[in-house]
Amino acid sequence: MWRGTTGQVCGVWPWHIAAGTPLVGAPMGPHQHTGAAVCFDPISWFQAGLLANPSMFVLSLPGRGKSTMVRHMLAALAGFGVMPLVLGDLKPDYTDLVAALGGQVIPLGPGRGHLNVLDASEALAACAQLEAAGAHKLAGELRASSRARRLSMLLGLLTIVRRGAKPADYEETLLRRALEILDDGEGVPRLADLLAVVRAAPEPLRAAAEDQGDLARYTEVVRPLVLSLGALTSGGELGEVFAQPTSSPMRRDRPVCYDISGIPEAQTELVAACLLACWSNGFGVVDTAHALVDAGLEPERHYMVVMDELWRALRAGHGMVDRIDATTRLNRTQGVGVAMISHTMSDLLAIPNEADQAKARGLVERAGAVVLGALPAGEMPLLRTAVPLVAAEQDELVSWAGREAWSRESVGTPPGLGRFMVKVGGRPGIPFHVQLTDTERDLNDTNQRWHVASRIGDLDATVPGRRAEES
Question: Which CATH class is domain 42-110+254-470?
């Protein structure tokens, strides 16, 4: 196939056809059926009027190239001037790319790094800049947004500590009043300071508790909240990460990756809490950046936010869907693209509460585009509840999920490796095969630990007599 401008190919009619897909966005690879170049990313397509909002939801079985596809897209977006923000890297899949782009890699986890969930110093410093510049309305909006995000994060942590039990409405009011008191004080507050405010029983909190002038009644009302906050500050696995001063503040002028790969998978509550904290802090930094841009105090920046392993946070308990939804609802005019990544619809809907299941499905339904990889046949009925798919599209997705042959040449290369389909509403899907450059291949190895073992085996061959003894 050949490509040319209308000025070049106008004389070769009828042996030319129009492009089947928009040549807008990151070059992803060839179309599976026509071989034409497929270009796609949610920010470029939104700017071109092809998407209703700059977001995408990625669903595919493990080991089929989800992270590689997203990294490829991030590299192209970085070339377009968009800042990649990877808010929670569990494997890690993105640290090498972010480092190669000159970005900031922030380790987070027990013994690796801390994130103070009450630290609003960056937002408050920006508010001072805005007020000095006369942008009082922007300063007020940023201050309110920062407080709302911290409150949402606190409620999420309490949900996790309580094994999925959602905080009561009056507890949310108490925490909101306590945050207001802390923001009016000096220094950077921590969870221990929040607990101290609740225990001190100031008048705004007593009014919220409706203790009717009886301090003993107040103590009884706030006891569950005090116990939960105590669990976050008493040296447990959550307190070790979130109750200490932030070890590495996130920058807003370069790519960022939160590396939480040091947390064992078995610590499911800590993993979910870290993901939620990274998402909350990252979107808060984006809010701060855009407020300064609107006031003319910083240059315009666009961000592409990656939220991987979404299912881990959703399974942390009832109400987590609301927390995620509240964290990620950014106005589409704020110059932020969002990529949410999970494995299957079954993972998203494996939540006991039916209302939460509907909200989790809504995360997929509201995405500007859905990018689908290899999926099993049993997944299709659930998937069709959120994404319109014709029979041929379903068959193609299922064929990518087939098993590879038992031969040395094919081991590790499943049929659907690197193959994805872009779905936008009811439009026909656009299937493509991701193509990497040689430079990218070195940054897209998600099996590095296995290759270390392979290299050890190669080293054995250099030791005299080693192979003979094994034989």
Answer: alpha beta
Q: What is the pLDDT of residues 7-29, one digit of tens each?
A: 777 766 555 555 568 889 999 99
Domain ranges of the chain: 42-110+254-470, 116-245
Q: Which residues contact 96 (CB under 8 A, 6 or more apart)?
A: 443
3-class DSSP string for 26-79: CEEEEECCCCCEEECCHHHHHHCCCCCCCEEEEECCCCCCHHHHHHHHHHHHHH
Question: How far is 98 from 308, CA to CA, in rounded Å?
Answer: 15
Rg (CA), the chain: 25
Cis peptide before 255 (omega within 30 of 0): no
Report the DSSP pairing between strands 430-433 and 419-423: antiparallel
pLDDT recorded at residue 453: 46
Report whether 87 contacts 278 (CB < 8 A).
yes
Report which residue type is found at 315.
Answer: R
Closest to 306 in 3D by CA, of 48, 2, 103: 103
The residue ranking higher by pLDDT, 5 or 140, is: 140
Structure tokens at 163: 């094994």
CA dihedral (139, 141, 144, 150) positive or negative: negative
Residue 70 CB partners (closer than 8 Å, separation 6+): 58, 306, 308, 339, 341
